[in-house]
Fold:
Amino acid sequence: MPNSDPSQKSEEVRWARVFKALGHPQRYRLYLEACLRPLTVSELVALSGRSQPAVSQYLNALRRAGLVRVTRKGRNMIYEAVAMEWSARRSLELMGLAAGSPRDGALAADSDIFPEMNQAGVPAAVNRDGSEDFLL
Structure:
C-alpha cells in the first residue's frame, strides 16, 4: 500500500504542479531563459516572439508552480528562476516504491508492462545491433 503520510502527499502534489507547468513548450522555454538570468516581461516577450498577455499567462503559471520568483523594479516586473532539486529516487522512497520498500515487488511486476526499463528502472533504448543506450 502506498505511503499515506500527508507530507509525502504534498510532495507528490508539488512535483506534479512543477512538471505540469514545464509540460508546455513555451513555459519550459521561458523557464530556461529565466534560469540564465533575471529578465523583465518585455525581454521575455522579445525572446519568445509571443504577445505580452500570452507571456504573462505563461509566467503566472510558472510562478504558481514555484518555478519563478517575481520582483518589482520601478515599473518592471523581473522574473528569476527558483533553483529546483528533484530526485526520482527520493520521490520513489516517499511513495514507498524504492528498492527495499514494501512495494518493491510491485515495480518488478511492471517489467511486463514496461519492457524498455532495465533492472535498475532506467529506460533503455535498444540499438539495431542489440546493445542498449541508457536514456538519462
